[in-house]
Write a structure and sequence with these properties.
Chains: A alpha+beta (638), B mainly alpha (134), C alpha/beta (175)
Largest sheet of chain C: 5 strands, mixed
Helix content of chain B: 55-70%
CATH class of the largest domain in chain B: Mainly Alpha
Structural class of chain C: alpha/beta
Largest sheet of chain B: none
CATH topology of chain C: Glutaredoxin
Distance between the termini of chain B: 51 Å
Order of helices and strands of chain C: HHEEEHHEHEHEEH
Number of helices of chain B: 5
Shape of chain C: elongated
Strand content of chain B: under 5%
CATH topology of the largest domain in chain B: Helicase, Ruva Protein, domain 3
CATH architecture of chain C: 3-Layer(aba) Sandwich
Largest interface: A-B, 84 and 62 residues
Radius of gyration of chain B: 21 Å
Order of helices and strands of chain B: HHHHH
Oligomer: heterotrimer
Radius of gyration of chain C: 21 Å
Structural class of chain B: mainly alpha
Strand order of the largest sheet of chain C: 5-4-3-6-7
CATH superfamily of chain C: Glutaredoxin
Chain lengths: 638, 134, 175
């Protein structure tokens, strides 16, 4: 029954989306300055329909969660992706741990975001508001069709199997259970920016109010993206067992690209809101940001980027997503090309000014985005010409690294510039202290064996940390606007994160050994005694657990227990790293294989200040959150 | 779940086809000479595991990646330069094996990308600034 | 000029979408092939993988007769699956040698008694060094080596029934 109810809700939501689109289209096609009553009624009715659509989609998603929670094996999706012997958390998380469920989550976020625009957005002119809701409904309609015709999550299975196939063990991790929904809120949240841009193009209403209206939504999506990427990186770090935290894998890039575009958008929308400049560019970025979400989805779902060793990917799914991609992104870009010329030219501004700095920010972020996009797609392009090649970390680091450092330098200076116009000498005086700090750290670290890039990273991080706090100097902390606080915290977060990255690559100590029980090995300031192994049993796995007694500089000993885990459903082996966190870094231990000679492979790393990477990510998201609260409160106050 | 599934699947692969012998010692043991170990490690991070989806041999659990790590350490320890080892592998597997695409007519566009993009961006920004100054 | 600039994003998108559509329509061949086809077999000497059979050296392939070189492991499921086809090839007169990857003598012996033994010689490639030297990227793979010891052909993956005549033709051509 639940499955049928869910499916019905999904069909109804799809119908609501079509209704919403049709009503808005009819209402907007009337160009009369004094529209007849029926048009005004239609305009007013679009909002409740959008809310209903959001609620119905939420209902369908809740039904699927309930089916997974009960492990209803008569539903094909549950039987294929879940198992009765599994902790409740992972039963629920299995809902989005598969193609159909995650697409349902995707469209649910889309519909709920549409409902939220209908309910809470008050700044936009009515016609632009309705056009925005129409765009949101158009995107949703396509994804409903995708679900209903090509990926029905509620399909039944007959006869009902005795038990399910289980969820991939690597996904059975508490941090991971909530990683996908977070990322999805970010990806799909960018659809709001997209719909705003399309709505504004339809009504030719691009200006400061439009920017102010859009900003909190972009900020919200960006916060979720930031959290999602940070959490995903930490997951890869401790789950993959090799101490790496970013691999430039196409799937990671698929999450980074929307973030880069959204970051650029956040800054350009500020220029638009404050100085009424960068109009066409901001519209363009809004379209690009959501395009990156969709391109990422397409690349991952269609399987064109993964190798033959991957799971079988349904080609019709790929075609379906590609069709949606062409329809929406192609459509929006065509609309852009036709209409943006008729949008009034924005305000003009000086090169040495806050807005000049923000142009530089957008330039560099866009170049990085372009590098990541082309690096990710290049192997495909080469393949089209019959050439096999790989593009990986060496390319991305070398191509994007220097530009990222330039961006960091610009980030230190930018917020210290005045709006409209600034004087070079005054700027030089303001940045004297951060520049001095950068130089001092650079010289001090010259005597370590850090490479050039980590060295530049660390010194620029120090300079940025100082510079990011300067906007607060001379202000009363209580009367400083929240958005300023947000900017300070987010920029500080970048400095912290960069310091962590640079420190990890410059100072990590590694020890790889095959150890006999009783043997003591050293890594960094630690002495690590391998006691031996013992078998342990968990909820739905068994494991071989290594026991390591660790002492730091002769201090109090403690126990680390890295594991090799074996899952039965489906049969998989994973390695669970053991981490010991200190204020100044992390000790990372992995248990490897038996060498058939009485010894065990151990991989040990001491990673000074590596945790700053994710702490910085958290600060960046916190900064966004503070800023968001400030923006929403300011709007309420109006 | 898109961030994770491909990772998950590529990791699940090697476990199901575990071979009969442990990886060679040099696969996961450092070279005694720290300088050699550093250059071996740096090289490994740029070589692609041939049986994984998209991982370097430096962070893959696959047996073949372990054998390739051992090969890299062995050759570096024998005095070969990292470039020679990479070339030896490229001779056998083509450019696919290197995450650092070697300069070639096929990769020239890729390596030109950053400068090209930066150039276009600067031209666009500067042209608009000039116009604005007027 | 300015107006024309606004069409650039659409043009770029159309190009990318075209690439995507083309990739979707293709059944891309993502196998990593050895670049040594047409070149002499790299020099190697491998100890016997089982006590009852000789090991393998490059010299064994310079006898003027084309041979098959099968890369396998007793731990690999597709290798067991291709055993009947290898037997068929042997019955048709193909001379087959093998390299056992990451294997132990007892396991190889058990594999041979379970699935049949079409091999003249089996070399023990415990750390895949010869496999890597050949440019082979997995198991099973089968190389056709001509009478002068040059690599004439590489078959990737298990040999299926329909591959048997193809391999026999390749062998004939490599004479």
């Amino acid at each position: 029954m639940i499955a049928e109810a869910g499916l019905a809700a999904l069909w109804l939501a799809a119908a609501m989306a079509l209704l919403q689109l049709a009503m808005a289209a009819i209402a907007l096609s009337s160009r009369a300055t004094e529209p007849p009553q029926i048009v005004r009624d239609l305009l007013a009715a679009v909002r409740p329909v959008a809310v209903a659509q959001g609620l119905l989609a939420l209902g369908a998603f809740a039904a699927l969660v309930a089916l997974f929670a009960r492990t209803d094996l008569s539903v094909l999706l549950v039987a294929e992706n879940s198992h009765s012997a599994k902790p409740m958390l992972y039963k629920v998380a299995a809902t989005w741990g598969n193609h159909e469920g995650s697409m349902l989550l995707w469209v649910t976020v889309l519909a709920v975001a549409g409902g939220a625009i209908a309910l809470f957005e008050r700044l936009l002119a009515t016609r632009t508001h309705v056009a925005t809701l129409a765009a949101q409904a158009a995107i949703a309609a396509g994804f409903y069709a995708f679900l209903l015709f090509a990926s029905n999550p509620f399909a039944r299975l007959s006869p009902t199997p005795l038990d399910g196939l289980g969820l991939n063990p690597l996904l059975q991790d508490p941090g991971l259970a909530f990683h996908p929904p977070t990322l999805y809120l970010g990806y799909v949240g960018l659809s709001v920016a997209f719909s705003f841009a399309v709505g504004a193009l339809v009504t030719r209403d691009v200006g400061r109010d439009f920017a102010r209206a859009m900003r909190p939504w972009v900020l919200g999506a960006w916060i979720f993206l930031t959290i999602g990427i940070t959490a995903g990186s930490y997951w890869a770090y401790y789950e993959l067992g090799w101490g790496g935290w970013w691999f430039w894998d196409p799937v990671e890039n698929a999450s980074l690209m929307p973030w880069l575009a959204a970051t650029a958008l956040l800054h350009s929308v500020t220029v638009l809101a404050t100085r009424d400049g960068l109009r066409a560019w901001t519209i363009m970025l809004s379209v690009v940001a959501f395009s990156m979400s969709m391109v990422g989805t397409f690349l991952v779902r269609s399987g064109i980027l993964t190798s033959v060793h991957a799971f079988a990917v349904d080609p019709t799914r790929g075609s379906f997503i590609l069709a949606l991609l062409i329809l929406y992104i192609g459509g929006a870009l065509a609309l852009f090309a036709f209409r943006v010329g008729t949008v009034r030219q924005g305000a003009l501004f000086e090169p040495v000014s806050r807005e000049g700095g923000l142009v530089l920010n957008n330039l560099l972020l866009s170049v990085i985005l372009g590098i990541v996009l082309i690096g990710t797609l290049y192997p495909l392009l080469a393949e089209a010409f019959g050439v096999q090649l790989s593009v990986g970390p060496p390319f991305f680091n070398r191509a994007a690294g220097p530009i990222a450092l330039l961006l960091v330098a610009g980030m230190a200076v930018g917020p210290l510039l005045r709006w409209r116009r600034d004087r070079g000498r005054a700027v030089a005086r303001r940045i004297a202290m951060p520049a001095a700090v950068t130089l001092i750290v650079f010289i001090a670290l010259l005597f370590t064996d850090a490479g050039l890039m980590p060295l530049l990273g660390l010194s620029l991080a120090a300079g940025l940390a100082v510079a990011s706090i300067l906007p607060l100097v001379g202000r009363s902390p209580w009367r400083t606007p929240m958005p300023i606080w947000g900017m300070v915290v987010a920029h500080l977060g970048i400095a912290v994160s960069l310091a962590g990255m640079a420190s990890d690559s410059a100072f990590t100590a590694e020890r790889l050994v095959a150890a006999r029980p009783g043997e003591i090995n050293r890594v960094g300031p630690f002495a690590i005694r391998f006691e031996g192994i013992k078998p342990v049993v968990g909820d739905n796995w068994s494991a071989i657990q290594g026991r390591l007694i660790v002492t730091r500089d002769g201090g109090q000993p403690f126990l680390l227990r890295p594991e090799q885990r074996f899952f039965a459903n489906p049969p998989t082996e994973t390695s669970e790293a053991a981490l010991a966190t200190f204020w100044d870094g992390q000790l990372y231990a992995v248990l490897g294989r038996d060498d058939h000679g009485g010894r065990r492979q151990l991989r040990l790393w001491w990673k000074p200040f590596v945790t700053l990477i994710w702490a910085g990510g958290g600060l960046i998201a916190l900064g966004g959150f503070v800023s968001l609260i400030g923006r929403v409160r300011r709007r309420r106050a109006r | 779940m898109r961030l994770l599934l491909p990772f998950a699947l590529l990791l699940a692969g090697p476990a199901s086809a575990q071979s009969n012998v442990p990886p060679p010692a040099l696969a996961d043991t450092q070279l005694p000479d720290p300088a050699q170990e550093r250059s071996a490690k740096a090289l490994m991070e740029t070589l692609r595991c041939l049986v994984c989806q998209s991982q370097s041999i430096a962070d893959s659990d696959a047996d073949m990646a372990a054998d390739m790590r051992a090969l890299v350490r062995q050759r570096i320890a024998a005095g070969e330069r990292p470039d020679q080892v990479r070339d030896w592998l490229i001779q056998r597997y083509g450019d696919y094996v290197s995450y650092d695409p070697p300069f070639s007519p096929a990769s020239i566009l890729l390596w030109a990308t950053p400068l090209l993009l930066l150039g276009i961006g600067i031209v666009l920004a500067r042209r608009s600034l000039k116009r604005r100054r007027r | 000029m300015k107006r024309r600039l606004f069409w650039v994003p659409l043009a770029a998108f159309v190009a990318v979408a075209g690439l995507f559509a083309w990739m979707l329509s293709q059944e891309p061949d993502r196998q990593v092939r050895s670049r040594l086809i047409g070149q002499p077999l790299p020099a190697f000497t491998l100890a016997p993988a089982v006590p009852t059979k000789p090991g393998l050296t490059t010299a064994a392939f310079r006898t003027g007769q084309p041979r098959l070189l099968n890369v396998f492991g007793s731990w690999c499921v597709p290798c067991a699956a291709e055993a009947p086809q290898l037997a068929k090839l042997a019955r048709a007169g193909a001379k087959i040698d093998a390299i056992a990857i990451r294997d132990t003598p007892d396991k190889v012996a058990a594999f041979l008694s379970d699935y049949g033994d079409p091999y003249a010689a089996i070399g023990d490639d415990r750390n895949s060094s010869v496999q890597l030297a050949l440019g082979s990227s997995g198991v099973p793979e089968t190389f056709v080596i001509d009478g002068q010891g040059r690599i004439a052909h590489q078959h990737i993956g298990a040999i299926r029934d329909e591959d048997v005549p193809i391999l026999l033709a390749r062998l004939k051509a490599a004479r």
